[in-house]
Amino acid sequence: MEKNQAEFHLHEYAPDEIIFAQGSEADYAYVIESGAVDIYVTDAEGEQVINTLRTGELFGEMGIVDNSPRTTSARAHTHVTLLQIHRQQITERIDSADPIVKSLLELLLTRSRAMLPEIADSDNGKSRNPILAQSQQQGISKFRLESELRNAISQGHIQTVFQPMLDLDSNKIAGCEALSRWDHPQQGMISPAKFITLAEETDLILDVGYLVFERACELLSQAGNIFVSVNVSARQLDNDDFFDHVLKLISHHSISAKQIKLEITETLVIDSVRAQQWISKCKAHGFQICADDFGTGHSGILQLAELDFDVLKIDQAFTRQMLDNKKAQIVLEGVVNMASSLGVTLVAEGIETIEQLTYLKQLGVNFGQGYWIGKAKKMSDFMQMLTD
Ligand code: C2E
Ligand code: CA
Ligand code: CA
């Protein structure tokens, strides 16, 4: 009997229960969370167990890698708990890898399939890998986190918080940056630093993005004349469905694309031709484009010359150093002059003291963001801050 433990798609099997049968379609791979699993083949002579796998091991991935029916069966040896890995989680990785990797994998699979009966003979049906290679373990824990993230998205555990941005001229809150948080039932709040990179490796970043845009539009429809900055990744910008979806959200909430600034991380802009295509597309739809973490990449100034950014967001590292570092001040002054000549709006992030705020204001920076102004907060608290 299969039981879904809701949280992370854990499935339990009683001893001798079949997990999958030889010849069936390969839809999932599995990580053994606890217990043992027999992998066996059935032929004219009957059944032969070729391997008994234990906690932490992955199985059922072969048919997924080369899109073929199962060549073995799997059955619970003891009571087992399994984590399901969706077919897509594996195929997305293979599809985005160098085609050579796929060929090599298929070659290896063909060979190991040809060896199946021999493995059974030589091991007398009882072999298992004593210690998984480190790389294999890393792969498995990544799959595990990814499965958890997939479920977190569908179960509403990915939340959006809003960090206020201050207009340094008028001293009023002019907008905010929408940031994602993972409210994990066991681990508490997980930082986006931990899960955004993972999401960016797969199409999960699209789902995270839809959630953020949905919340950003909701906020804008209630809050009136402010803007919301939303972080976007390359995979989102490359996806036409993404724009269609976001434009539908905007029209559904009767707001204007002008109120949304798309933040692109500068380190992501390696290929300036591709970047300019993104920027033109975003602008054609009415969005403003912000270069995030400006000054930390390799060619910030070159990109400033080549790309049509509306907003530059000066990285926190500058804000942190500028009061004690004369050179950082000179560089900042240069950036302010450049931005004003180019007609680009400037935002400074990571403002933690009133001294930093005052200095940036004197320098002519337009907007400020940081803990001194306010940490990221849930929508209702941000709305409260606006009315206060
Ligand atoms: P970022 O876009 O550079 O976001 C600013 C980060 O700096 C946020 O961290 C914010 O909470 C933090 N921060 C703000 N003010 C201060 C301050 O005064 N001092 C310090 N020490 N830190 C401050 P967070 O929320 O952990 O986000 C980390 C990164 O994750 C973001 O960096 C952004 O690149 C990415 N990210 C967050 N949410 C999303 C999302 O929904 N989609 C995408 N694609 N990326 C996201
Ligand atoms: Ca950002
Ligand atoms: Ca930033």
Strands, helices and their partners?
Blueprint: E1 3-4, E2 10-13, E3 18-20, E4 28-34, E5 36-43, E6 46-54, E7 58-59, H1 62-65, E8 73-76, E9 80-86, H2 87-96, H3 99-114, H4 116-123, H5 134-154, E10 158-167, E11 172-184, E12 188-190, H6 192-200, H7 204-223, E13 227-232, H8 234-237, H9 240-252, E14 260-265, H10 272-284, E15 288-294, H11 300-306, E16 311-314, H12 316-321, H13 326-342, E17 345-348, H14 354-363, E18 367-368, H15 379-387
Helix pairs in contact: 6-7, 7-9
Number of helices: 15
Spatial separation of the terminal alpha carbons: 56 Å
Approximately what portion of the residues adopt beta-strand conformation? 25-35%
The chain-level structural class is alpha/beta
| Arithmetic mean of pLDDT | 87
Largest sheet: 8 strands, mixed, barrel
User: What characteristic shape results from the CA principal axes?
Assistant: elongated
* Radius of gyration over all CA atoms, rounded: 26 Å
Identify every distinct bound molecule in the structure, by name, code or SMILES. ligand C2E, calcium ion
> What is the tally of beta strands?
18
Which consecutive residue ranges, at least 5 long each, have pLDDT under 50? 1-7, 119-131
Q: How are the strands ordered across the major sheet?
A: 10-11-13-14-15-16-17-18
Helix share, percent:
40-55%
Assembly level: single chain
